[in-house]
Amino acid sequence: xxxxxxxxxxxxxxxxxxxxxxxxxxxxxxxxxxxxxxxxxxxxxxxxxxxxxxxxxxxxxxxxxxxxxxxxxxxxxxxxxxxxxxxxxxxxxxxxxxxxxxxxxxxxxxxxxxxxxxxxxxxxxxxxxxxxxxxxxxxxxxxxxxxxxxxxxxxxxxxxxxxxxxxxxxxxxxxxxxxxxxxxxxxxxxxxxxxxxxxxxxxxxxxxxxxxxxxxxxxxxxxxxxxxxxxxxxxxxxxxxxxxxxxxxxxxxxxxxxxxxxxxxxxxxxxxxxxxxxxxxxxxxxxxxxxxxxxxxxxxxxxxxxxxxxxxxxxxxxxxxxxxxxxxxxxxxxxxxxxxxxxxxxxxxxxxxxxxxxxxxxxxxxxxxxxxxxxxxxxxxxxxxxx
Length: 387
Ligand SMILES: Cc1cc2nc3c(=O)[nH]c(=O)nc-3n(C[C@H](O)[C@H](O)[C@H](O)COP(=O)(O)OP(=O)(O)OC[C@H]3O[C@@H](n4cnc5c(N)ncnc54)[C@H](O)[C@@H]3O)c2cc1C
What we know:
- This protein is an alpha/beta fold.
- It contains 11 helices and 21 strands.
- It has 2 domains: about 1-45 and about 155-230 and about 330-380, FAD/NAD(P)-binding domain (3-Layer(bba) Sandwich), CATH 3.50.50.60; about 90-145 and about 235-325, 2-Layer Sandwich (D-Amino Acid Oxidase, Chain A, domain 2), CATH 3.30.9.
- It has an 8-stranded mixed beta sheet with strand order 7-8-6-16-17-18-15-19, sandwiched between helices. Strands 10-3-2-14-21-20 form a 6-stranded mixed beta sheet, sandwiched between helices.
- Helix 1 packs parallel to helix 6 (about 155-165).
- The protein is globular and about 70 Å long.
- The mean pLDDT is about 95.
- Flavin-adenine dinucleotide binds near residues 47 and 178.
């Protein structure tokens, strides 16, 4: 196969799908190539809490995430909330009575978010109970309530975005592995070679998530990218229960250790994760290890959803390990690849929340050849060795 496009997007996770759509809608001829299938990477193994409430330190980064929340509401209105699996449900960050560290944490978070103009309030007693009638809270508990937070069925959303992309005239190549970047003598991008043939293009966007360093190494033949790319791969465990009559109405998370976060999943069950139980992902994905991690997650979540660990056996739950693409400074990498005209990349944690915003900015960057101001601080050249 030999094809011609304005832009080739590599990777049909939520970032690649959203950006391919944004480019096609702006009149570009776009080919989206995916080595496996839509949402086969991290997007299919994400907790997928669409939020800006956990971003309390860096105001600009918080605001970009908050824009993501608004953009999802627009997508929900446009595609249908059910079609993309989006629900604005709100979230509670919970502090037990007498836990002064946790109380201090929710107060500090609420103050920071209020300062950024994010909707937030502290709730307790009857007000707290009414927000989550199915949940159990310790006596005297208080919580930070952020009503605009949402949950997403990320694979479903990615599939809807690719369908929208194809409807807008884009070409989707499933099972097409990007192999080699084609460049001219001056280092300008001319296209890529894939396992399904060559595609000529003046721009290539790498949206390969946690695999970005290795993909760059492979595409360019420079092995150093595999080890030097400033991205940590941080594995995390996500458990999805079967439908449960006491699934919470909104996202619940603890303010301090023992950490647990859970949300109402699209199947009527719960999706559960915990940052410290994530350490068990280091032991790999053999079934016995995942069952142990699953039992720990169910047991910890039972503090808020009594009887959960009695109703569900880990063996009946879906338990997966996802790999977070975590830029070295905890922010986002999005923009042009220094030294290779026409090559662009995005690698980011919170990619579910950020996808619609990053997609819009990246489409503008690729079409205009100029980095839009909101993306400037997320350029790869802020890292040593990439200027
Ligand atoms: C446990 C966990 C919890 C998370 N929780 C949240 C959360 O609550 N909220 C939030 O916003 N974010 C969360 N994230 C982060 C979020 O899921 C990711 O940032 C996001 O999914 C990244 O999407 P992506 O499109 O960049 O990458 P991916 O989804 O990994 O997509 C990359 C795609 O590229 C393809 N690919 C790779 N190499 C090639 C090649 N050579 N040729 C063709 N295709 C290729 C892969 O097959 C894959 O489909 C979480 C992540 C994890 C692991």
